[in-house]
Amino acid sequence: MSSSSTIGSALAALTASGRAESRLAFGCDYNPEQWDPSVWAEDIRLMREAGVTIVAINVFGWAQIQPRPDVFDFSGLDAIIELLHEAGIGINLGTGTASPPPWLSTKHPEILPVDADGVRAWPGGRQAYCPSSPVFRAAAQRLATEVVTRYGSHPAVQLWHVSNELGCHNAHCYCDVSASAFRDWLRAKYGTVDALNTAWGTTFWSQRYGAWEEVLPPRHTLSAGNPAQALDFARFSSDEVLECYRMEERIIRRLSSVPVTTNFMVTAHIRNQDYWQWAPYMDVIANDHYLDHRLPDPHQELSFAADATRGLAGGDPWLLMEQATGAVNWQPRNITKVPGELMRNTFAHVARGADGVCFFQWRASAQGTEKFHSALLPHAGTDSRKWQEVLELSRALGSVRELAGTRVVADVALVFSWEAWWATDLDSHPSEELRYLEQVHAAYRALWEAGITVDIVRPGADLSAYRTVVAPSLYLVRDDEVKAVTDFVAGGGTAVITFFSGIVDQDDRVRLGGYPGAFTNLLGLHVDEFFPLAAGGSVTLDDGATGTVWSEHIVPGAADVVATYADGPLPGSPAVTRNTFGGGSAWYVGTALDRPHLSGLLARAAQEAGVDVPADHGDGVEQVLRRGPDADYRFYINHSDETRPARAAGLELLTGAAVDGLELPPGAVRVVKTKREE
Predict the structure, then answer these.
(1) Chain segment 373-401, per-residue pLDDT in tens
(2) 445-456: average pLDDT
(3) Which residue in the list 165, 240, 341, 449 is annotated as catalytic?
(4) Residues 6+ apart with CB under 8 A from 92
(5) What is the dihedral of CA 465, 469, 475, 478, to 10 degrees?
(6) Is 352 known to sit in a ligand binding site?
(7) What are the pLDDT digits (tens) for 545-584?
(8) Among 235, 316, 511, 572, which is least packed by CB within 10 angstroms?
(9) Annotation-wise, does 28 bind a ligand?
(10) Under a CB-based contact definition with an 8 Å cutoff, are residues 272 and 167 in contact?
(11) Average pLDDT for residues 610-614, to the nearest whole number?
(12) What percentage of the chain's residues is helix, strand, coil (to nearest 5)?
């Protein structure tokens, strides 16, 4: 497994790339197989003009390099690798296993995935395979072995790219092969059928199993299914897709010394992989991120995803493997980026720890599903606004190259759990309007708007480096994870926990004795009944705040009441509390507070804990600090349509000007360097 220091050193080698000075990697996906070889030389010339330092190739190359079961043709891949190498451009080399070729599914249709209704998916898209299929795995291993044997020591190969966006489309397969693999996974976890029955609560609805052969994946049922079964299937599925990565990773490590990774999808619309479990197997943490215009604040979700990716890297720098220069092709309305937005989005990733920025893709495709997906080189070619923006971005990244290797500074941690996401969003809960990620995003947005940078941490993480910890709607939590928060507060820290937290254990079993179960003692209260609000309903608090989605009957014990309900089903009852526990304090929020009041509450809790909250925060200006051995680098990104002032003094790297106070034009990005006294 890779450690945090290994991740940092692997990316440092990538950004140094043989040069004396450090730099930020700047790259893209390239699909030369989509173009006549006569275009390749022009592409490479323009890549050099744009300052491209690394290119991902062979991501979807399986059908090209293995056109028949026993035929391999590396002539095209050999040629493009040599052209890139001669141009001094590094290669992020794909193993080519992202999607099987038509001959494989024609010869072995049993590899095709099956959904919960028993419908088998046909080839023609991508990732048309069952992750548990031994036939697919054997074919992928064979291809990966051929590719790594051929290029494992090539000097141009700087990074291995296993498959692509693993589990994006096929994370859950319900076929008989998957059912057998699921049973094997359950045997390894529980040992006996009796232990499984206990964990799943199968006394309910006559579901008790007498033999392993009776256990199935959570296929479509007439009524709501067993939630513990669904939760374990989600865990199993994440592990199975991870094993698809690991089988190739083992081949690479045997045949090559080049760092290995795959591209995560830490984003609002993909939730099937528990990346806390995946991260230790990566030499470089890499993420793909695209603005999701179905969300109310896409740029704030971008910041959350960047912070979460840094959390997966253990605070070390990380690599943005894919983003878009403009529009994507897969949303209902594919909104493009307005002038200046490409710079803001990219620098938000860099501000939050990315030491490399790459794009999908280099040249916009002329055919296929992604032909209207934006690219560094658009359909209009170099005579386009987008190309000029790309050149401007490349120059800007060059001006902050000294940032490579520095680390983001954060005194606040936000606990985030893929398991809690899966469990919270199961059916048969008090309110279908309560969705885990929405509550996580609400807490993150409140901190963002208060100007507070956070580290995203896993449940049970070491919290000793922080002053404040926020745990939004942490419905599922293990005992050791509860202890981590409790010990943190007892030792002098401040925790803010929001409603529907601590309710169940790892088996989705309710913790009895009143809610919020696991956190009752820490919070100095108990809740005896939930009062979820009607669709579109709201409540008012006595401090003027508004709550939505949720309310509950809080019975304070040792806790002090901070705010009460002024109306709704529980007028006069506590809504927000604060409890002194050991040397610290624990806040509890019993409803979904409106944005200004949640931001104000979190800022208050953080300030009381000694967190430095910028006085000039807010009004759409994003501020983040990266720290190096002898200098601080503070990012200012103005997402608003108005000029905003900022307190800053030092050397502004993008313009090269010394500043003592900033006026940030609408949409502007500034990076101010301040040398620190030893």
Answers:
(1) 999 999 999 999 999 999 999 999 999 99
(2) 96
(3) 165
(4) 27, 54, 55, 56, 57, 158, 159, 160, 161, 321, 358
(5) 30
(6) no
(7) 999 999 999 999 999 999 999 999 999 999 999 999 999 9
(8) 572
(9) no
(10) yes
(11) 91
(12) 35, 20, 45
Structure tokens at 634: 């503070």
Rounded Cα–Cα distance for residues 323 and 304 (Å): 15
> Does the annotation place 358 within a ligand binding site?
no
Q: How far is CA 55 from CA 89, 348, 641, in A?
A: 7, 22, 35
pLDDT at 111: 98
Best CATH choice for the domain 4-171+258-403 from the list 3.30.420.40, 1.10.443.10, 3.20.20.80, 3.40.50.300: 3.20.20.80
Q: Which of 439, 430, 442 is nearest to 532 (CA)?
A: 430
Distance CA 474, CA 483 (A): 14
55, 94, 371, 372, 670 from 364: Cα distances, Å: 15, 19, 6, 7, 30
Active-site residue 110, yes or no?
no
Give the pLDDT confidence score for residue 618 in this predicted structure.
67
Of 362, 289, 341, nearest in space to 319 by CA = 289
CB 580 within 8 A of CB 624: no
Average pLDDT on 276-302 reads: 97
- Give 363-411 as a DSSP string: B--SSSTTTTS--SB-TTTTSSHHHHHHHHHHHHHHHTGGGTT-EE--S
Which position among 322, 341, 449, 552 bears the catalytic label?
Answer: 322
Q: For all residues of the chain together, what is the average pLDDT? A: 96
pLDDT band at 619 (very low <50, low <70, confident <90, very high): confident
Instruction: Using alpha carbons, list the distances in angstroms from residue 143 to 32, 105, 242, 259.
Output: 19, 15, 18, 19
Name the residue among 352, 354, 298 with its Cα closest to residue 322.
Answer: 354
pLDDT value at position 551?
98
Residue-level pLDDT at 73 = 98
Closest alpha carbon to 638 in 665, 660, 657, 673: 665
Count of beta carbons in the 10 Å neighbourhood of residue 437: 20
Establish whether 122 is an annotated binding residue. Answer: no
Sign of the C-alpha dihedral computed for residues 94, 95, 99 and 103 taken in this order: positive
Q: Judge contact between 347 and 671, C-beta under 8 A.
A: yes
**Distance between CA atoms of 100 and 104, rounded to whole angstroms?**
6
Q: State yes or no: is 322 an active-site residue.
A: yes
d(CA 516, CA 530): 10
- Return the CATH class of domain 412-608: alpha beta
Q: What is the mean predicted confidence (pLDDT) over 228-237?
A: 98
Q: What is the mean pLDDT of residues 90-104?
A: 97
Residue spans per domain, the chain = 4-171+258-403, 412-608, 621-675
pLDDT of the residue at 2? 64
On whether 362 is known to bind a ligand per the annotation, the reply is no
Banded model confidence at residue 1, pLDDT cuts 50, 70, 90:
low
26 close to 51: Cβ distance less than 8 angstroms: yes
| Cα–Cα dist 596/600, whole Å | 6
- Domain 621-675: state its class: mainly beta
Is the per-residue pLDDT at 4 higher than 80? no
DSSP string, 499-554: SS-S-B-TTS-B-SSSBTGGGHHHHTEEEEEE-PPPTT-EEEBTTS-EEES--EEE
130 is in an annotated binding site: yes
* End-to-end CA separation in angstroms for the chain: 36
pLDDT of residue 20: 46
- Order of strands, sheet of 407-408, starting from the edge strand that comes earlier in the sequence: 407-408, 621-627, 631-638, 669-675, 644-652, 657-664
